[in-house]
Specification:
Chain lengths: 182, 79
Amino acid sequence: MLRVMFLGMAIASSSLAAASNDNSSSAASTQETSIGDAEIAHIAYTAGQLDVVAAQQALERSTNKDVRAFAATMLRDHKAVNDLALALVTKLGVTPQANPVSQSLTDEADAVRARIAKLSGKAFDRAYIDREVGFHAAVNEALRSTLIPAAQHPELKDLLEQGLALFSAHQQHAEDLARELQ
Amino acid sequence: MISIDRMKFDSVPANLKVGDTIRWVNRDAVPHTATARDRSFDITIPGNSIREMKILKKGQHEFFCRFHPAMKGVLSAAP
């Protein structure tokens, strides 16, 4: 979870720092990247898709009723939002662009998925829910502090704001479950 | 009418009574439920959809969304 949280800080403070359009700071670090609606759309879609995959893993491995219900909600909600996102980028003529942030998100999620695949029972449930707390906290922080302020098109900004409301509820749900699993 | 928008139940109308019809308007893209803790009602409202429900039981009913338990409200119905 710490690594996910670190990634969240990276999303919020480093990789997307070029959102400020400060060319001097962009040039100062090779880790920074320009951020526009195409990159933002890719990051948001990638985050949703990664949580769908995590939910599928939980539904395959967990027998805990509450954990399975949570995973089913993640699957349903993130698919719904990503369907909206795809429809919006098509309407706006924006082609989502792969970027270092979405790649980092993917690499981190792949590593966590592989690690917790070795667990079972309560250990798996705790690891999955801890992952969900950290992942949503990181993504929400990135949405709040960087992605929403940087989004240019009003409809994309609005969709991201809807996503923040939804993912904040997911984070709270995951935090409540984490306490119950202790 | 009770709207659901951005993961919140809007305010519940006052002066409701048994037999009244509640129109749940879900403006979110994701499905929600309005589920009474006393189980006197439990309705699922798909994303961007409207569902209607008749109030069958008097009293003060705390309700929540089963999918998103942080979403809560209270519905009071007179006899």
